[in-house]
Amino acid sequence: GPSSQEILEKRKQFLNPAIFLYYKKPINIVEGKMQYLYDETGRRYLDAFGGIVTVSCGHCHPEIVDAIVHQTKILQHTTTIYLHHAVADYAEALASKMPGNLKVVYLVNSGSEANDMALMMARLYTGSFDIVALRNAYHGLSAATMGAAGLHTWKHGVAQGFGVHHALNPNPYRGVHGSDGKLYAEDVADLISSATPGKVAGFIAETIQGAGGAVELAPGYLPAVYEHVRNAGGVCIADEVQTGFGRTGSHYWGFETQGVIPDIVTMAKGIGNGLPLAAVVTTPEIASTLTKCLHFNTFGGNPVCSAGGHAVIKVIDKERRQENCAVVGGHLLERLRQLQEKHPIIGDVRGKGLMIGVELVTDRGTKVPAKAETAEVLEKMKDLGVLAGKGGLHGNVFRIKPPMCFTKQDADYLVDVLDYSLAML
Ligand code: PMP
Hints:
- This protein is an alpha/beta fold.
- It has helices at residues 4-14, 50-53, 62-74, 85-95, 111-126, 143-148, 181-195, 221-231, 284-288, 303-318, 321-342, 371-383, 408-423, and strands at residues 29-33, 36-39, 44-47, 104-108, 131-134, 164-167, 202-206, 208-209, 215-216, 235-239, 264-267, 278-282, 346-352, 355-360, 386-387, 389-391, 397-400.
- Helix 4 runs parallel beside helix 10 (303-318), helix 7 (181-195) runs parallel beside helix 8 and helix 11 (321-342) packs parallel to helix 13.
- The longest helix has 22 residues, at 321-342.
- The chain starts with a helix and ends with a helix.
- Bound molecules: 4'-deoxy-4'-aminopyridoxal-5'-phosphate.
- Residues 110-112, 115, 138-140, 206, 210-211, 239, 241-242, 268 line the site of 4'-deoxy-4'-aminopyridoxal-5'-phosphate.
């Protein structure tokens, strides 16, 4: 294949320069096998970011590849205007994974589309317009979801979210109320009574914020907020784009870690192990409001993505991936906390299962974000063969969200590489 330099030159000429690369010295990935990626020289990297939390079962997982190839050879696309079994079979399988009355599936292609649709459903169903979202949230880059973002870095001043109100971020590490979920929930009640007519369309939140830096919501937050929102006539939307499909280890869905059942659940990324697939799952009652509108999605629920998504669900069950997230994630968190004792720059280690954040600060007291250091360590880790992510408003949080086939040995290797890279600062 072409060299990195040739690809870089072609990109420069033909690709929008806004499509950014992660590393100062970019890597050229030509092949993937489960939790490993290979560059053009055959060098192997341990992938602890999974294509931004998307490769859930592993790169080119053979059973998922087989399902995709098989379906592609028979029928790739017709749109949903004709009957096809793959979309119906897949919807049944996905619904079987949902608690309560969350049984109606609408398939789309990306997390942005899914959240966009969820916000629209909430507004159509309730007849209200106001939405409560969280500061530090990320829900996508459609006009409506950019408006719901609570990170100015993703808003660009062009889609400011008319009708969206941003509540306090219930962040145990940096938030004003520490770990007291109930106090943060009071802020939502206050927001509803002061900034809306007392009626809202809904509330949207990730259970562990992803792009915002793997921030867990303070315990007890969601149950209290859901009550306030429902009392104001609103529906509760859980953005499971990153936290779904067993990644948190203890539960299949992130919202279950706070003991709530939402009214609308959005999912993307890991749902397709890399295929463009996303879904909105809701109750029959809420789903039916959409029948009043002419609504359509050209690629949503196409046979190939449906077959691939179905295979993902089967693989997660068969290979006990949720359990693996609990075991390996627990081990990784423990080892990272030991590392925190050694390196004062590590301000916080947090997360659940294989959805982990490591926040770097220049001073543990003032918590000043160590932004430059994070970028430097990320680059160093890559040079040593480990790919992690970074995020948070200040770009000072390592995001460790590998394919869910990550092993304890992989975790140990990652920690050793992080340890060494931090020592080199
Ligand atoms: N919600 C969350 C929590 C996300 O992390 C993302 C993607 N980073 C999105 C929504 C948007 O998904 P997509 O990029 O597929 O539109």
